[in-house]
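queue> pop job 88
queue> type: inverse folding (structure -> sequence)
queue> payload:
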């Protein structure tokens, strides 16, 4: 049974891996024995995260801005220098922008969509040769996109570009899955609910606001690192090899109850 959920020795890239959900996922994969590359725009916290994870296992930092095609191509090239194949690509890097509807700026759409949607597509394409080198019928290569419950249900917050971008990630996931299934590359999405991150800090660091959020989750709590790591390892292991084109809410029932 342990082999069913094993990822030891697999190679993985986790974008936005220096904090929040990305760091949770990266830590979980490192602890499970994967060789992990994490990326982020900001070098100092990225290197600090990689140094911390390197005490546990194999982790390398590569600075990358995935809001441009050049950034995606550069990250794929850096991974290619380290690995001759890529087993797991976790497209987690993201941006958000909140502002009232009457003043919501056009630049918010460019920043958020460039990173959250275009970046996912461009990095996946840039890394296709590495994913193809890993892929087999018995053990497909895996692409895991991080969406959001905000892409499933309209959020209360005025984050128009963010919610639209995550809905786009979910549909892009399905489209890529259909195209890449014949090449033995699975593509799935995780749609997290409330987890500790920079994006949710304004809510979760305030005890009253945190309590309100928890009351809206049917299971009555905020997501933990074990929750997202468990699902990621499942999707990355033999246990998840026959799953593709899915968007899995990881939200304690928030979007479905």
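queue> result:
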């Amino acid at each position: 049974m342990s082999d069913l959920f094993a990822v030891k020795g697999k190679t993985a890239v986790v974008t936005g891996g220096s904090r929040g959900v990305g760091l949770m996922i990266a830590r979980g994969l490192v602890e499970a024995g994967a060789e992990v590359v994490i990326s982020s725009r900001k070098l100092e916290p990225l290197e600090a995260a990689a140094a911390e994870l390197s005490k546990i296992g194999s982790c390398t930092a590569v600075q990358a801005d995935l809001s441009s095609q050049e950034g995606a191509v550069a990250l794929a090239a850096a991974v290619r220098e380290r690995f001759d194949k890529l087993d797991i690509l976790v497209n987690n890097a993201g941006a958000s922008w909140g502002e009232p509807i009457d003043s919501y700026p056009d630049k918010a759409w460019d920043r958020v969509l460039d990173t959250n949607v275009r970046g996912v597509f461009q990095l996946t394409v840039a890394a296709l040769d590495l994913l193809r080198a890993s892929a087999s019928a018995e053990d497909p290569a895996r692409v895991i996109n991080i969406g959001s419950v905000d892409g499933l249900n309209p959020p209360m917050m005025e984050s128009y570009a963010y919610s639209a971008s995550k809905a786009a990630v979910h549909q892009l996931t399905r489209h890529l899955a259909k195209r890449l299934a014949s090449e033995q590359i699975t593509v799935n999405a995780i749609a997290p609910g409330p987890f500790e991150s920079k994006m949710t800090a304004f809510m979760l660091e305030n005890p009253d606001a945190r309590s309100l959020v928890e009351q809206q989750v049917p299971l009555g709590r905020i997501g933990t690192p074990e929750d997202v790591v468990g699902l990621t390892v499942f999707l990355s292991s033999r246990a998840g090899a026959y799953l593709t084109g899915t968007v899995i809410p990881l939200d304690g029932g928030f979007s479905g109850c």
